[in-house]
Amino acid sequence: MDLGIYGRKAAVAAATAGLGRAAAAALTAEGVEVTICGSDEERAHDAGVELGADWVVADLTDPQAAAGFVEEARSIMGGLDILVVNGPGPAPGRVTDVPPEAYQEALDRALLAPVHMCLAAVPIMREQGWGRIVAITSLGVRQPYMELALSNTARTGFTGFLRTLAREVARDGITVNSVQPGLHATARVAAVYGDNPPTDDIPAGRMGDPDDFGAIVAFLCSTQAQYLTGAAIPVDGGAYQALL
């Protein structure tokens, strides 16, 4: 299927590995010009070369630096049509084990930095009357992970922001959606769960493939998805079981 985004310009945050990289790869395969970022210069360079994308170094734990990535990507490409919001997740831990002071850092990483990225992109997209914002969040927004109290908290707040933003910019030709990954075969999942990720409750019986996830992100950026906005889509092999 031709997604109708050939030649569009996309900024993909935290795309040196994992789901961010899969999203960047899916967009480049559609002929999208992509600029990625990572916190490590060598990894960002290597990923950019392998993907055929421009790359910059950005500290996405800092809200101002996160906004700066979007602005730098626009400058490099001479425009911006698509923003894939992604970033490093907060440290794992249960509510009763996490100290209160850890919440501010978690909010900077998983709420405020993503908000700043969106706010940097919206005026550009409004001016041109077209844009796609797709945020990679977590299934923990719907169904909290016991080991990820900080992520559950911060990303739920960001989901509320996205739903509100979607309503405000829909008439400007901008769609805003989030994709909520369950367990996928990434370094992040391995760091949290080791060699025994909890797949018993996943109807598909396995972890997800990052490349499949990237294809879903690319579709949300397509012309065919122009009437889909304000959605928070679980991509989890059927793990989420509630009716709503």
From TrEMBL:
InterPro entries per the UniProt record, alphabetical: NAD(P)-bd_dom_sf (IPR036291), SDR (IPR050259), SDR_fam (IPR002347)
Pfam families linked to this entry: adh_short_C2
Membership in a protein family: Belongs to the short-chain dehydrogenases/reductases (SDR) family.
Name by which UniProt lists this protein: 3-oxoacyl-[acyl-carrier protein] reductase
Species this chain originates from: Pseudonocardia thermophila
